[in-house]
Amino acid sequence: MSYTHLAYLKPGKSIDLETLENNIAARYEGMKNSTKPVIVDEAGMLRISFNSYNFYITLVSASHVAVEARETAEQVDKDWAENAYDKGALKESTIRLDFYGDADPEMEYFNDSLFILEEIEKTGDTIIFHSN
Description:
The chain has four helices and six strands. The chain has 132 residues and is an alpha+beta fold. It has a single domain (4-130), classed as 2-Layer Sandwich (TATA-Binding Protein), CATH 3.30.310. A hairpin with a 2-residue loop joins β3 (45-50) and β4. The N and C termini lie close together (11 Å).
């Protein structure tokens, strides 16, 4: 299994990778008996490492994002959590976070993927989808 999600920012919204990094770190600091990740900002890409396993978050604002957002709004009715979403907002999106992880055939990092996605979702400024 690999974890791949796209988090489109709602129109007029922005996201600060440093704030997201701090929120993810704070979440793990508050969890007893959990492995704390090492989080590194590598020139606009967050690498979140648990021993030898890595998740990545990249901020993308290239022109293809707007095209893909409109296509997704036309083709997909539910977000990553199987909830309805604001299709109008998605159609106007021009920025997204690409979230993905290394292959995880035993699903050892599944819960961590959810914890990180929840921190992205907590901003309230994104619409998240699974990506293949």
